[in-house]
Amino acid sequence: MSSRRFHRKSRSGCSHCKKRHIKCDEGRPNCANCQRAGVVCTYDQLKVPSSPAQSASASPAGSTASTLVYDHAPTFDMLDLTLMHHYTISTSLDLFAGQGSRKIWQEVIPREAQSSPLLMHGLLALASMQLASTRLNERQIYATRALAHQNAGTRLFRSMLEQVRTPDGHVIFIFSMILPILAFAFPHTCDDPPDIDGILDLFSLIRGCKTVWLMNPELIDASPVAQWVETTIVGHPIEMKPEVDHRFQALRASLTNPADIVACDQLIDFTRGELATSPDGVANLGRWPTMVSDAFWMRLQNHELDSLLVLSHYSVVLGAPSYRWWTTNWDSILLQAIDKALPEADKKATGWDYATMMKFANSCKAR
Questions:
Q1: Global confidence as pTM
Q2: Widest CA span of the chain, in angstroms?
């Protein structure tokens, strides 16, 4: 006889528990089973009686795509209300420098989020990430909620990208700008810094936004942040110190793989021409990982020595911006991970030294 235990069926449990036919404790935002499994809960939409006229008036223009891809109503609770308040009074003011940036992120984008579950998840993830990085005693609570909102938003994002045409194109574009911030913010919510594979996973999140950034210009033009993007993301040259240029040229001369050479050239051009793209140099911080080829990215994932050395020089870009809660210490985060990934024999053969590389990374620090 089977020893399987049977439980009373829950009609209001999460979709994951229903699919597995197990009892759900209906915890929000994640039930205990989903927390153990490392997945995000989704709950079936509650049916609220309303007249056709009320339904029509409550549906904002341009929300068709969100309706098509969002099978379950977003579940927000009191913690999310706290997060939205924190986003408005704090997080939105500390993403980018400049009064124009504050208006966009504090007023314009939150208005868009009122009718967009995708953007709402993005903003709540940002606020929760910031709190996880500053309130150490409550870090686990905020980090868990940040990941839940990021995962929910990313699922929506990918589903909407699969649609041939969507009236929510400008919303997709805005979320594609939020994802890199979340990627850079994530290590600040953890007790231990990520290893090289963890960093590559975070950068892969940024690379996934390339599809949006390469879409038709109309996508950007339709966005309420188009003017901000135009004035903030346009690069202008900065002075590269002779010792920095010399190190780049020495690295390039040592490379033999075509993918490594091209990636190095892209990094040199980026550092010379587009590093200082905003008042504090963070607007284009994650652009180089989206520029490199799939061949180079595969070599990084295989921990090829020369490819990792090229990546280590990206630290000069990461070390350039002045303090922002989501960018701070990224030069050391990257270099520590590479230092741990490189075998001692390779360090000796190439003259790799963590302290020397940190000095190099600080060469273009914003003053």
A1: 0.73
A2: 79
